[in-house]
Amino acid sequence: EFEGRVALVTGSTSGIGLGIARAFAARGATVVLNGFGPARDIAEARSAIEEEFGVETAYSDADMSDPEAIGRMIETAAYRHGRIDILVNNAGIQHVAPVTEFPPDKWDRILAINLNSAFHTVRLALPVMRRNGFGRIVNVASAHGLVASPFKSAYVAAKHGIVGFTKTVALEVAEEPITCNAICPGYVLTPLVEQQIDDQAKVHGISREAVVRDVLLAQQPSKRFATVDEIGALAVFLSSHAAASITGAAIPVDGGWTAH
Ligand code: NAD
């Protein structure tokens, strides 16, 4: 389905991003990975994708908090592959603290990685998509792009911001064969959430089990974590021709969280 297409997924060395990259590779796309982690793990993830799905992979170590590095990543991908058909802005970090104790440098970093990076990738990738007459932008926002929770001021601000950015870009490209949408996952059990379970346990002074039951899944009426595969499947659908009329949407994958 995606043979000949190039999908660039930021923050794809782990968790949801890696799941999305694998979902595109499974359907024949060349995937450009990005993110941090031990070189050996990244090399292993790449060769697993190449062997399992018979596609080409590339990797950029660009730091999504560095606009110049983002520029080099987009330029290199466009030059090497001649196209960027699908851009998934997924890289993201979290920090949990009351607003009065929220470290200003953490605020800046969360806004830079979770929001500003998407401005830079979109700004630079859109001309490449226009040149090839096709484009799909998928921003991994969050249920926290639609509703708030305490102790996550920077994250909620950034995620609400990216939902607004998604709608604006969608309107700007509405008459072109390019769409821009946001996926709003509820809780997915990834390293980011594992870390949060520890942080929330500290903030609330309760056990990890209690955090999962009474804090995280208390929000999620389905009482189960959404899965990386479910998010990947939606990213693939939004990037298909069948989804040509879906643009400017923020789609929850949250077990009913934002329904109540
Ligand atoms: P994760 O920590 O497992 O993965 C994050 C990825 O981003 C990793 O590949 C990491 O290397 C990369 N990354 C971090 N900082 C980076 C930087 N400065 N530059 C480049 N890459 C960087 O997290 P995840 O849970 O898979 O989260 C992925 C996205 O999904 C995030 O935007 C997150 O906010 C969002 N999200 C996650 C959940 C959840 O429950 N896990 C829910 C809603 C939204």
UniProtKB/TrEMBL annotation:
<keyword id="KW-0560">Oxidoreductase</keyword>
<dbReference type="InterPro" id="IPR002347">
    <property type="entry name" value="SDR_fam"/>
</dbReference>
<dbReference type="InterPro" id="IPR036291">
    <property type="entry name" value="NAD(P)-bd_dom_sf"/>
</dbReference>
<dbReference type="Pfam" id="PF13561">
    <property type="entry name" value="adh_short_C2"/>
</dbReference>
<dbReference type="InterPro" id="IPR011294">
    <property type="entry name" value="3-OHbutyrate_DH"/>
</dbReference>
<dbReference type="InterPro" id="IPR050259">
    <property type="entry name" value="SDR"/>
</dbReference>
<comment type="similarity">
    <text>Belongs to the short-chain dehydrogenases/reductases (SDR) family.</text>
</comment>
<dbReference type="InterPro" id="IPR020904">
    <property type="entry name" value="Sc_DH/Rdtase_CS"/>
</dbReference>
<protein>
    <submittedName>
        <fullName>3-hydroxybutyrate dehydrogenase</fullName>
        <ecNumber>1.1.1.30</ecNumber>
    </submittedName>
</protein>
<keyword id="KW-0614">Plasmid</keyword>
<dbReference type="GO" id="GO:0003858">
    <property type="term" value="F:3-hydroxybutyrate dehydrogenase activity"/>
</dbReference>
